[in-house]
Structure formats: C-alpha cells, structure tokens
Specification:
Helix content: 40-55%
Structural class: alpha+beta
Shape: globular
Oligomer: single chain
Strand content: 5-15%
Radius of gyration: 39 Å
Strand order of the largest sheet: 1-2-17-16-7-3-4
Number of strands: 21
C-alpha cells in the first residue's frame, strides 16, 4: 500500500510541478493581501528598498535621504503610501515589495501652470503593449531564455520556477561559491531574471539565498491578479524586453531595453525595426531583404548580449557574432525562424554604432533655464549629477511662469541685434554706444512674487550661452547698490537707539555721557530730548533727512591708510544733501561720511573698546599692538613670498641685492643676514661681485664681516641698515635654507620674527604711532560688526572690505542677494522663505509614493516694520525723481494709477591693480563691468536686472545702471499681464 501511496504521491507532485495548482491557490490568496494605498500625511507603515539597480536608478533607495533634506528646506509630507500589514510582513521577511512595477520613469519639471518645462524618460523606446512585440522577436527571446513560458496547457503555472532550471541555477551558484569557473546561462526564468537585474545587489545573484529571494518575489508578483498567470506571463515578457540591461555608453550612460539598445548600439530606428519584423513579413520569406536581415540580426545580438553586455558589446563583440551565427542555425533547425531568414541573417554583418552616442549637442542657451533649475533641484536633493537626477521617478512643480519666462528670455536675446537694441532705447548716453559689441553684453533678470506663504520665483533667466549663473554664481562689483545696504543698516541702528533711549525724561537724556564722536547716538538722544513723544516712524523720516557734505576734498583715514573718493557727477561736489537725496541721486561722498558715522558709533558707543584704549597703561593696548604686528607682518610676507617663491636661493639673493643701491654696509648686512654661516671667502666673493674695487678696500672686508654679523643687530636694525623691509631680509634667508617652503610654513616660522620687527612700536614714547595702529584694528572690529549685520540681512560673502568704500560697493555683492533684501523690505522686515519649487511627487504608483509641499512657515522679523517702510519710501524716490526716473509711470494697469515702483541702481568696474616693488602703481586692468537695478513693482513683485561685460574689453564700455533700468522699462509689456494676474 505504501508503494501505491508513494506512486500516487509522486504523480501529484509531478502534476503540481507542471500545473502549480496548489501554489496558485496559496500564492494568489497571499498576493491579494499585498497592497498599498496613498493617504494624507506621513506613512506609519512604509518600507524603502536598500539596493538594486532599478531601485537606485529611479531613486527609491535614496527616498529617505531626499525626504530628510526637503524637510530641512521647509517641505512636509502631504500624502504617502501605506503598506498593508501583510505587505510589510512579507518585506520584513526578506522579500521585495510586490506590486506592478513601472517600466518607464524619469524626472518631470512642471511650471506653475502644470505645463512641462523638462521631461526625461528612461528607457525612452519601449513596447507599450504585449501585442506590439513582433512574434519573431518574442519567439527568439523565448527560445534563448524561457521556452516553456507560454505553455497554455497550464494556465495557473508559476512562471517564476522551472524546477530543472532551478536545480541547474543552484548547482552553478554553488560551483561559483567554490571558485569553479562556471559561466553557463539559462538557469533562471524570465521572471527571476527580471527580479535579479532590477532588485538584486548590482543586478547579480550572489548567493543561493538571493536566488530564493528572486524566485519568491517573482512568484508572488505573478499571482497579484489571481491564480491564472497567462496575462502575468505576457507582462513578464513585455517587461523583460523593455528593461534588459545593455551596458553603458561613454557620454550617454546606461542603456536599458531593446528599443534603446537598438538606437544606442546600432543607430537603428525602433519603429522601422518593428515594421521590418512584423508577422506578415516573416510569413513571406521571399520578401527577406538585407534590411530585414540586418534588423533581425541586431535584435538577436542584443538579446544574446544581455548575458554579458559589457563583454559582448565591447571587446568581445566578435564572440557575440559567432554566438549569433550558432543561434541562427539552431533556431532554423528547431523551426523558430524560416530558413530564408537564417540565410539572410548569416550573410549580413552588423557593426556597432560609430561614432558612439554623443551627449545632448543642442545650444546651451536653448536649455539653460531647465539646466539651472535641474542644478538647483540636484543640490536640494543631494544628487551628485544631472544624469542621476534625470532618472529619478519624480515630478516637481516649480514656481516658474514658463510663458512669461520664455518671452523675457527671447526679449533679452534680441538685445544682441543692433536694430532691437536701438528699438528698446538702449543706445545713448550712459547706455550702449554705436560701436559697442552687443554680443558681449550679458543681461540677467530675476523676478519673485510675494505671497503670504513666502516669495515664489517666477522668472530667472539671462542671455548668456554658458552655464555660469550671473545672478547667483559670482561676486560682482555693483557699486551704489551698497548704498542700499548702508542705508538699511543706518536706519536699523537708528531704530535700535530709539528703542534704547525712548521713554527717558529729557533731563535724564541730557545727562547721558555719550562720546562726541558717536554722532548717531548723540543725534537720536538730542531728538528725543527735544521731542519726547517722537514716534519711531517720525525719527526714521528725520534720519533720512540728516544732511552731509558731498565734497570730495577731504581725505578719509580708513582701511589702514588715507583715501580720497569722488562722486559720479562732479556737479554734486559742492552740495550738502540729505541721506534720502544722496540715495536718490547716488552721491558717493554722502554715503562715505554716513559709513564713517556708523563706524564711529561702533567705536565710541557707551562701553566700546575704543573708549578704554586712551590710557597708556591700559594692559590691552599691548594685545592690540601684537595683533597689529602679526597682521601687518603677514601682509608683507605674502607680498614678498609672491616675489621670491619661484626663484632659487642664488636668484633670490641677486634680486634682493638689486633692490638697493650698492653700498658696502647695505650689502654686508644683506649677505650676513641671508647666509650667517658662510665664511669670509664666500662673503668676499659676494662683495667683489657687486662693488667696484675703489669702493671696497681689502682691509675693510674682515671688518665688515665681523661688524655686521647678525647676532650684533636685531632684525629691525638690519632692515634699517640694508634699507629693506626687515621681513623681506628674513624671508630670503629662510628660503635660502628651506627652498620650496610653502606660505603656511613661512607664516609659522616667522611668528617671532613678525613681533621682533615691530619692537619699536611697543616703546612707551610711541603712543601716537600706537594709537594709529590700535585704531586700525578697532576699525576692523567695527567693520566685522557691520559685516555681521549685513550678513544677517542676506549679504552673501564671508569676507568684507574694512573700509568706508564698502558703502559704495568695494565689498561686492550678488544680484540675487540684493533681490532678497528688497523682498525683506517689501515684506515689512519679515524674512519670508524664497523658493523655486512648490511640490514634489516621488514614485507615483509605487509603494514608495510620496507627495511633499511647502509647509506653512512663520518668517523671522529681521527689521522693524518702520525701518522697512522708511527704506521703501527712499527707494520710491529713486524711481520718482532719481537715477531710475526713466521708469516712472511705466508699470500701470488700464484705468488705474501706476504701480508703486522703487529700487536702487548700481554700477561697478572690477579692476585689477598692480603695484611695483616700492609701492608705485604699475598698471590697471579692467576685469569686468556690471550695472544693476534691484527693484519692487507694486505690492507683490520684486527682483533684479543686471547688465554685465567680462574681460579686458569691458574697459571700452561706458554704460551705467541706466542700462538695466531701460531694459526693465522695455519688459513692461511682457511683465504687466503677470503683474495684473496677481
């Protein structure tokens, strides 16, 4: 009886292995519980993949990192996929998330109207339906990989497992683990191969456990739609053909799927190949042409190449052709292909595409907007390259208004033609000249829209055919726009002083001990003492009316020396102007004096360090003097190091010697300092080489050698005797004994020398000299506070020029940073977030689907509303009666008053100045010329427009900030519809 039972048991097992009836019942029941649903808010039940080429390429592996970065940028998850409990359980036990995977995905960028700005889909050429696959292609695939896949006798058959193939695969895996060289293919079904090259580490089967994971996941996926797997098997074949990995091409990247493979490796049109291989063509062998044979052989080669794509589509391409020939003969024998097709395909030769696929060669200008947006998106997500970004399964809605942006871009490009430039009114005084090369002028334009949620970027474009972003990418000298930063800081200080002293009685205010040099504090106190009920708004209006002389005749001790400044318009030189008028007309000397008052406030306000440094016995004076010696010594050493670093010790000594008139004492001091250990003979040779015989008696040489030995004089005295800076002497001596030393090594080694050189400064009788140098350091500290205040309001750089000249542009700026400052003023001093992307939709239709949108944010109050209002009123006057008056009344709506428009102009030349060894001017080289206008248009819009020319040719241009103002005027017809919609 046991034998009969065993026989029936084996029969049932055999039937189950063929039909999968029991598997279908169990697995379809289990698969029906594997689901997910997208619901509002973050998901409490989600699992992310950790490996697999498919999951990495589409960004599913990095999703946790993306979400974390976007949360830090102010975005929140608004909806996310929830795993069913059973799906989470399956994944936790080591299988893959089971769902209907998508074949194509890629980045999509949409504008604010949901119109496509950029779209990338990978793979690009696919069969959308199973019926689209030519039977000849399908039959060839099945013969090579999985001949029993469409056995219709068993509709519930598990396509993931063919037990004979599974045994073969296990054997091969064990053999490879034991280091046997096994390269046989064919151990896996199409279903498990699909799991392997999509989800296994590096697309490979690394263990028996991984093989079981592939099979289990593939089996569950096959029964997602019920026990009948015929449709699932069709889907497997379709997905396999569309997704097979076919190596990567330099300059293009990875190739997936038969369609992309035909294009990338053979430069074959996918639609043409399918037309040549359609069923009616194969059924008529007499119609087989070389074109038909070529198309079929290309398909065959790619289907075979999937086994070892890097080899077969590279150095082993000849081996692939031999393999293809053997398959052609075998398939003809087996009746898979007609004999005529075999013979025709054997006769043709198919060569790989030459040259290989090139990257996108379209003009950069045609895609700059999308390139900049993608670069910003990649930065926000932490993605290493645009290539990786473009493959993400992601749809992003940007804030850009594409129709208006496109129109602005076209308008800026037209300004390269003489006719359009003249029509736009850009030819004339302070604008462009008839002889200027228009192609060299770069125009950049940025516009934000203000809303309760923050500031959305609507337009960001330029007419520059290179990747450089003029708006945000470089430091520009923007001249008088720095007056705006100076004005805002001045008003901010005035408001702080108001808050400190308001409410005190006039008697108490008059008794305050305020240093006369702190003119800002004294002015505020005087106003409050005479008008106790003065409001902050009234005080700030009065601050705008404070008057300064515009005379350039005065010298200003700042930045370590005495400097003079000039006004742009000489007619202003004899005027006395208010702060408001000077901003309106962009008068330099008023703002130089205003910056002096700001610096003096930091130096002499109650409790300031400068007030405590007057006494000779103040112990901190020594600390400041040592810091000055160290700082100035480093400045000189950098200059000297640049002079000598590329020279040999002999060349350095010769150059040093040439720096002074030949004299025995000077030369003796130089040589004994540089080479203190050289003997008398070497010293004699040096002197005779550089002095006439009549200038040097034989008996004098030993005396000079001993008298000017370095131990007899300190470094400062040796510099005086040689008529050289002592640190130059020290450096040449150091490099003579340490050739090739780096600047950092020089600085470390010279620490004591820098202090010794300035020993004279520490003497008590040098108080005046000490005071000057201490004042220099205190001024630097004051500018550090000003720099911090500017950075708090968006100044973009970590370095700042400690000079009054920073008030008129010496420290540079960026157009985008100036636009942010205008946005702050327009928003009543509240720092609202600025963004260019509104929402993110990751992995649509997958168990990882996540939607993110900007979370509500409360802006930081950086300025008092009264300060912002006072600054805006001054900016409006710049347009109404000042340097931007050509814009007055331009932006208006039909039947309504003109929009309230304000802004600040600025023009800057970036010049490289060279000085000789003794400090005299050698030359000036113009590096660039820039002009900008930062503005607001009405209550809701603000931005910046910039004109820029780079290179020595910039010296020929004479345009001022009138040029960007005129450009903004010309853009009014394009921008007004956008402004009206708001």
């Amino acid at each position: 009886m046991l034998g009969v039972a065993g026989f029936f048991g084996l029969q049932c097992l055999h039937r189950e292995l063929l039909s999968s009836t029991l598997q279908a019942r169990y697995l379809s029941s289990l698969s029906s519980q594997l689901s997910f649903a997208v619901e509002p808010g973050p998901s409490p039940l989600i699992r992310y993949p950790t490996t697999g080429p498919y999951d990495r390429r589409f960004g599913y592996v990095e999703l946790p990192s993306f979400l974390q970065r976007l949360r830090a940028l102010g975005f929140a998850v608004t909806a996310q996929a929830r795993f069913s409990p059973r799906l989470a359980q399956v994944v936790d036990r080591g299988l893959l998330p089971i769902y209907h995977e998508k074949t194509q995905a890629g980045l999509r960028l949409l504008d604010r109207h949901a119109q496509i700005v950029f779209s990338a889909t990978s793979p690009g050429r696919i069969y959308h339906d199973f019926e689209d696959i030519p039977p000849l292609v399908l039959d060839t695939l099945l013969f090579i990989e999985n001949r029993e896949l469409f056995d219709a006798r068993y509709p519930q058959r598990n396509p993931a497992v063919e037990w004979d193939r599974f045994g073969l695969a296990v054997f091969d895996t064990l053999a490879r683990a034991l280091r046997f060289n096994v390269n046989r293919s064919g151990g896996s079904t199409l279903a498990t191969q699909l799991e392997k090259f999509r989800h296994s580490p590096e697309g490979r089967t690394v263990s028996v456990l991984e093989k079981l994971r592939q099979m289990g996941s593939a089996a569950l996926r096959a029964y997602l739609d019920g026990p009948d797997t015929l449709q699932a098997r069709r889907a497997i074949a379709l997905a396999y053909i569309n997704a097979i990995p076919l190596a990567a091409i330099p300059g293009y990247g990875e190739v997936h799927g038969l369609g992309d493979g035909l294009w990338a490796w053979y430069d074959a049109d996918f639609a043409t190949v399918n037309r040549l291989l359609r069923a009616d063509t194969v059924a008529a062998p007499q119609t087989v042409s070389p074109e038909h044979a070529m198309a079929y052989r290309q398909v065959l080669c790619l289907l075979l190449a999937q086994r070892r794509p890097v080899l077969y589509l590279g150095d082993g391409y000849a081996t692939l052709q031999t393999l293809a020939d053997s398959y052609l003969r075998l398939m003809a024998t087996q009746g898979v292909i007609p004999l005529a097709w075999r013979d025709a395909a054997l006769r043709v030769q198919v060569a790989l595409r030459q040259p290989p696929v090139l990257a996108d060669t379209r003009p950069f200008a045609s895609q700059k907007t999308t390139s900049v947006m993608r670069a910003r998106l990649a930065h926000d997500l932490g993605v290493a390259s645009l290539y990786d970004l473009d493959h993400l399964d992601l749809t992003v809605v940007s804030t850009i208004d594409q129709p208006v942006q496109r129109a602005v871009t076209e308008a800026l490009y037209k300004l390269r033609t003489r006719q359009q430039t003249r029509a736009a009114g850009l030819i004339g005084e302070h604008l462009l000249g008839d002889q200027d090369d228009l192609d060299r002028v770069v125009y950049s334009f940025t516009l934000y829209e203000r809303s309760p949620q923050g500031h959305r970027l609507r337009i960001q474009t330029d007419n520059y055919d290179q990747p450089l972003d003029i708006n945000e990418g470089i430091r520009l000298d923007l001249g008088s726009t720095a007056k705006l930063r100076t004005l805002v800081h001045y008003l901010e200080l005035s408001a702080e002083l108001y808050q400190r002293y308001t409410g005190q009685s006039p008697q108490a205010l008059r008794t305050l001990a305020i240093d006369p040099r702190d003119r800002l504090s004294r002015w505020v106190v005087e106003r409050l003492s005479t008008t106790p009920q003065l409001s902050l708004r009234d005080l700030l209006e009065a601050a705008l009316e404070r008057r300064y002389a515009a005379s350039p005749a005065e010298g200003f001790h700042t930045g370590g020396g005495v400097h003079s400044f000039a006004n742009f318009n000489a007619a202003d030189d004899h005027k006395i102007l208010s702060v408001r008028q000077a901003l309106r007309d962009s008068v330099n000397l008023v703002y130089i004096r205003l910056m002096r008052d700001i610096v003096s406030h930091y130096l002499y306000r109650p409790g300031a360090m400068a007030l405590q440094m007057g006494a000779s016995d103040e112990p901190r004076r020594r600390v400041y003097l040592e810091r000055f010696a160290d700082r100035e010594g480093q400045t000189f050493l950098r200059r000297f190091y640049a002079k000598y670093r590329a020279r040999s010790p002999q060349e350095a000594l010769a150059l040093l010697t040439q720096s002074v008139p030949a004299h025995p004492v000077r030369l003796a001091t130089i040589y004994r300092t540089v080479y203190p250990d050289h003997d008398l003979a070497a010293f004699t040779g040096y002197l005779r080489a550089h002095l006439e015989a009549r200038e040097l008696a034989e008996a004098d040489i030993p005396r000079l050698y001993s008298t000017y030995a370095p131990e007899r004089f300190d470094l400062h005295d040796r510099g005086y005797m040689a008529r050289l800076h002592p640190l130059e002497l020290w450096l040449v001596g150091y490099l003579a004994h340490h050739p090739g030393a780096s600047l950092q090594q020089v600085m470390v080694a010279s620490t004591d020398a820098r202090q010794r050189v300035y020993r004279w400064l520490f003497k008590t009788g040098r108080k005046h000299a000490q005071d000057k140098r201490i004042q220099t350091l205190l001024e630097i500290e004051a500018f550090a506070e000003i720099h911090h205040a500017w950075q708090r309001l968006g100044y973009p750089f970590e370095t700042f020029t400690p000079s009054y000249a920073s008030a008129i542009g010496a420290s540079g700026d960026r157009p985008a940073a100036l636009a942010a400052l205008i946005g702050l003023l327009l928003n009543d001093g509240v720092q609202a977030p600025r963004w260019r992307f509104d929402s993110y939709h990751f992995a649509a239709g997958t168990p990882y689907e996540t939607l993110m949108a900007r979370a509500p944010a409360r802006g930081a109050h950086l300025l008092a509303p009264e300060v912002a209002a006072a600054a805006r009123s001054a900016l409006i006057e710049v347009v109404e009666t000042g340097t931007a008056r050509r814009l007055k009344g331009v932006y208006h709506r039909p039947g309504q008053p003109p929009l309230r428009v304000g802004g600040k102009t600025g023009t800057g030349d970036h010049r490289r100045v060279s000085y000789g060894a003794h400090g005299h001017l050698v030359g000036r080289q113009v590096v660039s010329r820039a002009a900008t206008f930062v503005f607001f248009l009405g209550e809701h819009f603000f931005g910046v427009v910039t004109a820029y020319v780079t290179g020595p040719e910039a010296a020929r241009y004479r345009f001022t900030s009138a040029l960007p103002v005129q450009v903004l005027k010309g853009l009014a017809p394009i921008l007004m519809p956008l402004l009206e919609r708001a």
